Amino acid sequence: MARPKVYVTRAMNREVMEILGKECDVTTWPGSDPVPSTELLKNIEEVDGLFCMLTDKIGKDVLDKAKNLKVISTMSAGYDHLDIEEIKKRGIKIGYTPETLTDATAELTVGLLLATCRRLMEANAAAREGKWLTWSPFWMCGNSLKNATVGFFGFGRIGQEIARRLIPFKTKQILYTTRSENAEAKEIGALRVDFDSLLQNSDFLIVCCSFNESTREKFDLSAFKKMKNTSVFINTARGGVVKQDDLVLALKNKLIWGAGLDVTTPEPLPVEHELFKLENCVILPHIGSAATDCRLEMASLTARNILTALKGENMPSELVLS
User: Fold this and answer.
1) 34 and which of 10, 55, 145, 243 could share a cystine (Cβ 3.0–4.6 Å)?
2) pLDDT of 246-268, one tens digit each?
3) Catalytic annotation, residues
């Protein structure tokens, strides 16, 4: 009996390749950069399983070529890079890795928030550039979490873990905006409010929602105008949740105090982009889950999703489509 064929769109660690190789014939794009679309189309025709990344757009053009495809497993929690409707039409199973990256992303978000509100990047640059002349009472002062109201747009697993990590900083209140009441929020002591109240009352506003049509460019100029001019905006969700040109205006015109971004539009953000010129904006290259143990676990789960699906077994982490 012929072994199933799997295509992996990025160079992976040896352990994962061995797991897949024991039961499948595996072809890999060897680069650390995203696989070119022409290369993906060339290699997808006879594949049974696809191991992909959030940088790989899996749409109709790819699916039309992949006549034998039975499972797509993405090494990510998000799946906006997948054409869900086209995949559903073909009865292809989808695996993803939502729970594996919760802690790593929560840790990174807290780090990004602190780097932004306490001006760590700016202070480090000043020290390196010889601008650290002496101790000064109000030089490089930033905003404190103590007695602050922290708001969350989206309050799933990641949002809740961020909140749990921030409460020991002696925050005053945790607010959140979601479509429905969150049972776990009561345990944390978080209060659900409408979107306008979230904007108006948050000293720190953290975006950790999923990206879809209802959240696309949710944070535009009208939203930033409702925020406190002392507030700090943090986004570790998706760049598309923010109307980026409006964020530039909000930061330039001091409508908000600062912003910390782990996600942008596009990615990577061009080095000449206006956001890089602003001292009150900290930008990271989408490293939310970039802890070694987390990425190894994500890779392993992605492989196991493929293997179980190809055997007709229950996948450890299947995206169930309604």
Assistant:
1) 55
2) 999 999 999 999 999 999 999 99
3) 286
Q: pTM of the entire structure?
A: 0.92
Per the listing, tokens 């679309």 go with 37
Residue 94's DSSP bridge partners are 72
Cα separation of 14 and 11, whole Å? 9
* CA atoms within a 13 Å half-sphere pointing along the CA-CB vector of 216: 4
Strands (DSSP E) contained in 100-200 are: 149-153, 173-177, 191-192
Phi first, then psi, for residue 235 (nearest 5°) are -130, 115
The token pair that represents 140 in the structure block:
């490089």
DSSP labels, 252-293: HTTSSSEEEES--SSSSPPTTSGGGG-TTEEE--S-TT--HH
Nearest 5°: CA angle at 287, between 63 and 155? Answer: 85
pLDDT, residue 136, reads 95
How far are the Cα atoms of 82, 141, 256, 263, 273 from residue 78, in angstroms, in the given order?
9, 36, 28, 13, 25
Cα–Cα distance, 224 to 250 (Å, whole number)? 6
**3 neighbors 25 (Cβ within 8 angstroms):** yes
Residues 109, 291 contacting (CB under 8 angstroms): no
Cβ count near 138 (within 10 Å) = 5
Residues 145, 265, 129, 280: is their CA dihedral positive or negative?
Answer: negative
Residue showing tokens 């990344």? 53
Computed over every residue of the chain, the mean pLDDT equals 96
